[in-house]
Every structure is written in structure tokens, then in C-alpha cells.
Design brief:
alpha/beta, Rossmann fold, seven-stranded mixed beta sheet, two-stranded antiparallel sheet, 8 helices, 9 strands
């Protein structure tokens, strides 16, 4: 492909997001803004996992249930020379991921396929994915992750807490006991974190400011101040008020489990 001119380079840089899809014309409305009411929360735990991943000094990372690839897109900027792989069973999600980050290895398939990767990974991330797995398939799903992870590797997981009402797209939410039960006997929890407070007056104010039917806040500096306040005061929570649980796990030895004693979490 020919080298881009200065003008073409400027245009190319605009395609960090498919902005031509923003304006929408309906029968009774016109809209030219797109908002994500929980975007501040999403970025907070995404960056949290990113930080924990960097602390492990990994050489290869597999993001299971990568979706459209935002996590690996961000990690790539901070992890030069690392092997980054994302896998998802949604072809549409993988197609989007390939468009947004062409230098990352994206795989359309299921982690349960033991032949899908030739090498094992020393870090696996499972970000807001386990709740999308049918309860009857959780054990085989985690066993597959166990297989693809190096013996000394680490697994980082985030899941929605039972403090948050179950949504239509989730099979289950988790508390400490149910998450631990799901992970056993494949993984042992090394660290656990309770994130994203769900109840606080300041949180109610933030939600009203960021998402209401009358206005969309767009001032970038003000939005940054709100986000920084959220992270400093409302991100770290406790077991009774968290919206999300994050755990870092290590592998249990293969001798530690037998299929006939596997426990499946059902909430």
C-alpha cells in the first residue's frame, strides 16, 4: 500500500471510532450523540485489570471473551513486545476487534477447543465473561482455561456481584463463595478485590449528571474531574456494597480435580 499523505494521515487517525455511524435519524427524532451510561465504571475496572496484568510481567496474554477488543487495544499501547491474543465465540465481535486493532492476534472460536492454540499462556484474563457462560458449562469452560494456562501462570477474573440485579444477558452474578466454588478445583484465589460501589449519594449525583433524558455532558475537563473523583472515592468498595468482584488466581495441579466432583455454581 502506498504511503499516506499528511491529509490522508489525519483522516486515518479519525478512525479510532467509526464516527460516521453516530448520527441517527428516526421517524420522530434526530440524534447525533452516543452515550454509554456506565462508561466511567467500565473504564475503571478495565484499567484496574490492565494495571494488574502489567504487574505480572507476562510474556503472553490470552483474553478470553475479548469482545470487540478494547482491553487488548489499551494493553497493546503499554506492552510492546508481548504476545497478545483475544478469543471470542462471536464472529461479529472478532470482526470489530480486527478492524480496531489489526496488530493483535484475534481468534474466532471457543476456548474449549484444546487444539486452537499450539502454545500455552502465562496470563489469561476473563473480564466480565463468566456470567455469560451457561451454568452447566462453567466447569468445562474453566477446565479449558486451566489447560491453556502455563503451570506458573495467573488468571485474572472480573464478574458482576450479586449486589447488582441479574440482567437478561447474564446467567448468574456472583458472591465470594459462589465464585470460589466455581473456580475450585481448577484455580486457587490469590487476591480478591471488591470494586465499583453501588450505593452513595455522590454516586447518585454522578449518574444523574452523566446520564439523563434532558442533556448529555460533553465538557472534557469536567468529565475528567468527575471520573477522577469516582476512581478516588467510589471505585474501591467492600463485600456488601460492591458491584463487581475481581480475583487473581493461580492454577491448581491437575491431580487436584476429578470430573465427578466438579461443582457448578447456580445462582
Amino acid at each position: 500500500m502506498d504511503e499516506l499523505s499528511n491529509q490522508q494521515t489525519v483522516q486515518e487517525s479519525r478512525y479510532e471510532y467509526p464516527y460516521h455511524y453516530i448520527p441517527v435519524l428516526g421517524e420522530k427524532y434526530f440524534m447525533q450523540t452516543q452515550t454509554l451510561s456506565w462508561g466511567y465504571e467500565y473504564l475503571s475496572y478495565l484499567l484496574f485489570v490492565l494495571g494488574k496484568a502489567q504487574e505480572t510481567d507476562f510474556k503472553s496474554l490470552l483474553d478470553v471473551g475479548c469482545g470487540d477488543g478494547r482491553f487488548l487495544f489499551e494493553l497493546q499501547r503499554r506492552a510492546e513486545g508481548k504476545r497478545l491474543v483475544g478469543i471470542d465465540y462471536s464472529k461479529r465481535a472478532i470482526d470489530y476487534a480486527k478492524i480496531m486493532s489489526q496488530d493483535i492476534e484475534w481468534v474466532y472460536g471457543r476456548i474449549e477447543n484444546r487444539e486452537i492454540f499450539k502454545e500455552k499462556f502465562d496470563l489469561v484474563t476473563l473480564i466480565e465473561t463468566l456470567e455469560h457462560i451457561p451454568p452447566g458449562n462453567v466447569s468445562s469452560f474453566l477446565q479449558a482455561i486451566h489447560f491453556h494456562l502455563e503451570e506458573a501462570g495467573r488468571l485474572i477474573i472480573t464478574v458482576p456481584s450479586t449486589n447488582v440485579p441479574l440482567t437478561k444477558k447474564h446467567y448468574q452474578h456472583f458472591d465470594t463463595c459462589s465464585l470460589t466454588a466455581c473456580l475450585q478445583p481448577f484455580f486457587e484465589v490469590v487476591d480478591i478485590y471488591y470494586l465499583n460501589r453501588q450505593s452513595a449519594l455522590s454516586l447518585k449525583i454522578i449518574r444523574k449528571l452523566l446520564s439523563n433524558r434532558f442533556m448529555t455532558l460533553t465538557n472534557a475537563k469536567l468529565l475528567r474531574r468527575i471520573y477522577d473523583f469516582y476512581v478516588a472515592n467510589l471505585f474501591i468498595s467492600d463485600v456488601s456494597n460492591c458491584g463487581r468482584i475481581a480475583v487473581i488466581c493461580k492454577k491448581c495441579g491437575s491431580q487436584a480435580f476429578k470430573l465427578d466432583i466438579i461443582k457448578t455454581c447456580v445462582k
